[in-house]
Specification:
Number of strands: 10
CATH class: Alpha Beta
Distance between the termini: 31 Å
Number of domains: 1
Largest sheet: 10 strands, mixed
Shape: globular
Helix content: 25-40%
Structural class: alpha/beta
Mean pLDDT: 94
Radius of gyration: 19 Å
CATH topology: TIM Barrel
CATH superfamily: Aldolase class I
Bound molecules: zinc ion
Order of helices and strands: HEEEHEHEHEHEHHEHEHHE
Low-confidence stretches: none
Number of helices: 10
Oligomer: single chain
Strand content: 5-15%
Length: 315
């Protein structure tokens, strides 16, 4: 109790201090948008045109953000042989304007490209066709790197995709491009606002056939180990708050850094509580970040990264 008695002592003895460099801000760039489309309950988050995203990044850099995770939302959807012209244009626009002022991770998945909204290619029987899916995801990753992406973040949960992406990046001359894998990603009820942001709801069924069942700890650990063995540089749990029990174990078993994705539903719940006058938004968000750090998260992907400087976090 003695060390909790004053702010001086609490600050002296806290062990989860961190800087803005540990926070990654998601961005959503959509094709064919005139105005920014606000995402329900994700305070300050929009799906934006390329021009809108450029303005947003400029503001975010001033607000002290240096790491971004970009989600592409092209308007053309198909079953395979995806049209990547829009994504190339968006990445190129951001990197040619801001260069090394930022680090641009690219969420890499097929669900915003496929007409059915799933993260894979299906065969004629409607089953996941890995032989078709992995080359498409790898092609996407190499394409993003060629367009200027600094890092690749595969989010699809298909077996073998990290190895396939690594090979494709290396073959394309991008052997220094890191992979931050969504390595333990659960089928969750907390992705709702994101699906509006990324326009990525499956048109039929759900993603329980490839995302992890929340009841399965071993599966969750094994999935990250597999990504690590396949060559992922950074690992991640998602949703963050409902996976904090796994972070240290994954870190210990792989020897790799594990981040947490504070997903849209987690973040939105804090926004909605605060809008009802039931919590103070900035205090609740900061509490959640410290819990992620206490649980061992090396970095946090959060819709609130752009507020961190105003809240006093150092660079
Ligand atoms: Zn996906």
């Amino acid at each position: 109790m003695r060390l909790r008695a004053s702010k001086h002592l609490r600050d002296l003895s806290n062990d989860t201090d961190f800087s803005r460099a540990k926070l990654i801000q998601p961005l959503f760039v959509g094709e064919g948008l005139k105005d920014d489309l606000e995402i329900p309950a994700l305070r300050g988050t929009f799906r934006q045109s390329i021009d809108g995203v450029l303005k947003q990044v400029e503001k975010d850099l001033e607000a002290g953000v240096s790491q971004f995770l970009l989600f592409e939302v092209p308007s053309k959807k198909s079953e395979r042989d995806f049209d990547l012209a829009f994504s190339e244009k968006a990445i190129h626009a951001i990197k040619s304007r801001f260069g090394q002022d930022l680090f641009l991770w690219l969420d890499t998945c097929l669900c915003s490209l496929t007409s059915h909204g799933h993260c894979c290619v299906f065969n004629e029987l409607g089953q996941i066709d890995l032989d078709e899916t992995l080359p498409e995801i790898s092609r996407l990753a190499a394409h993003y790197a060629a367009a200027g992406a600094d890092g690749i973040a595969p989010s699809d949960m298909m077996d073998g995709r990290v190895a396939a992406i690594r090979e494709s990046l290396d073959d394309g001359g991008f052997d220094q491009t890191p992979i931050m894998s969504y390595s333990t990603k659960f089928a969750s009820n907390l992705y709702g606002p994101f699906r509006v942001a990324a326009d990525s709801s499956p048109k039929h069924g759900d993603r329980k056939g490839y995302q992890i069942d929340v009841r399965n700890r071993l599966d969750a650990i094994e999935s990250s180990i597999r990504c690590s063995n396949e060559g992922a540089d950074l690992l991640m749990v998602k949703p963050g708050m409902t996976s904090i029990d796994l972070i240290r174990e994954i870190e210990e078993k792989t020897g790799k850094r594990v981040g947490a994705y504070q997903v849209s539903g987690e973040f939105a719940s804090l926004v909605l509580l605060s809008e009802k006058g039931l919590t103070k938004f900035e205090d609740a968000v900061q509490e959640s970040w410290h819990v992620f750090r206490r649980a061992g998260a090396a970095f946090i992907i959060t819709y609130g990264a752009r507020f961190a400087k105003a809240w006093g976090y150092p660079s």
